[in-house]
Predict the 3D structure of the following.
Amino acid sequence: MTGAPIDPQDYLYGINIVQMDDLRVARGLTRRPRTSCSHKRLTYDQGERRVWCEDCETEVEPFDAFMGVVEVWARASSQLERRKREVAEAESFSIISRAAKVIDTIWRSKRSVPLCPHCHDAILPGDVVGGMSTASRQLVEQRRKNKTP
């Protein structure tokens, strides 16, 4: 592994010789062929400042070792983001109100439906799917207060 960059040489006389390795690097390919080992079990030796694979027992280039760490990190990060989105979606569909939970458990039962506490008429799920009409809380409480003797 040499640290010198590839410099094109222009000769005044003669034919320019082109190395195939230089063309491969210019096209973004590597000089070294890929091995069948994916180097999953890397050992980092701080004393000798080298990285080697325990499976194939060969020295691994630092950039390749770094890319392996980055790929694992990116995969874990994307899994955490996906899990975060799933939890947020599940929380958005959860019922928070105690009254809604009570009505939901009654609707889930096979043989009974909830009744209106005032008129004692049945409330079916289809009755509230399109929305419900609303009234002012203060007016309703005042009306109930006036009705009680």
Observations:
- The radius of gyration is 36 Å.
- Strands lie at 42-45, 50-53, 59-60.
- Residues 96-125 form one domain.
